[in-house]
Amino acid sequence: MTERHDKLDVAVVLVNEGYASTAVGPIEVFCAAGTMWNEMCGADSEPRFRVTTASIDGTPVQSAYGLNIAPDRAIADLGPVDLIMVSASGPVPDEWMARHAAIPPWLAERYRSGTRIAGVCSGVAFLAEAGLLDGRRATTHWGVAESFRRRYPDVYWETDLLITEDAGLYCSGGVNAASDLSLHLVERLCGREVAIECSKALLLDMPRPSQSGYALLPLARPHDDEKVRNAEHHLSRHFGRDVPVEELADLAGMSRRNFVRRFNEATGQMPGVYQQMLRVAAARKMLEDGAPSIEQVGLSVGYEDVAFFRCIFKRHSGVTPSAYRDR
């Protein structure tokens, strides 16, 4: 007998002068989860989400390019939900935020009641305006990153990332990252298998890790040392080979000793350990995606000695590669 699952309630918040695709795209992803792939394979449809749309006052909104979208209700009339996703606007000047001033305190109240909150692209500003992101990691579109850093200085902006997740708060980069974030949330809430089936049915790639297209998730604590951050990016791009400290020091224009001190102060790790962590993060991703050979995974991330790879992996993950793959 097929296991049945309770539907999760999702509310997508519509904003005036926003980007329609950042509302419609997530709606389609959530509605496709458990349905579209099943139907294509001749199986029973099993919807995983119940999706509602809302605007500030329940009236239609007009997108940045003139598309009118009618919501189901006003945000004040929205019942309990499991997840709220705020669609994207353009840049966020003071007068635009003032016209949407009802949204941030409403989000803060919902978050305090246990609701997960997600923001797409510049829609992340609503989470920041509510104070929800203070002291937490977040991302947004690179084009508004500097203005957001100035407006919300207490947020740890990691705008190289396409998606961030911190304490039930989810943020994504550009407009097209709405699909990445939606699939990420499907995976978080329904499991990887459902997310993969959803991505196949919609011909979407599973979420990318970064806006640059190549970096792994930065592993360090947030910091403002740009020279160290550049070294981290260099390590992320070249973690598959041994990167000597001298190479990183030259890149930063420092002596070896000064670089190691700065790197450790900024990241909390020595450069060699940081590279190990990058390699293990990449190995975990390969194992999550079903890589059959532990030896090949080790080689792919830069370890020719499989016994040493297993040792390093267990040191940073707490379990062996085989145990991690079998979870």
UniProtKB/TrEMBL annotation:
GO terms for molecular function: DNA-binding transcription factor activity; sequence-specific DNA binding. Keywords: DNA-binding, Transcription, Transcription regulation. Residues 229-327 form the HTH araC/xylS-type domain. The keyword Transcription applies. It comes from the Bacteria. It holds the Pfam family DJ-1_PfpI. PROSITE patterns: HTH_ARAC_FAMILY_1, HTH_ARAC_FAMILY_2. CDD domains: GATase1_AraC_2. This is Helix-turn-helix domain-containing protein.
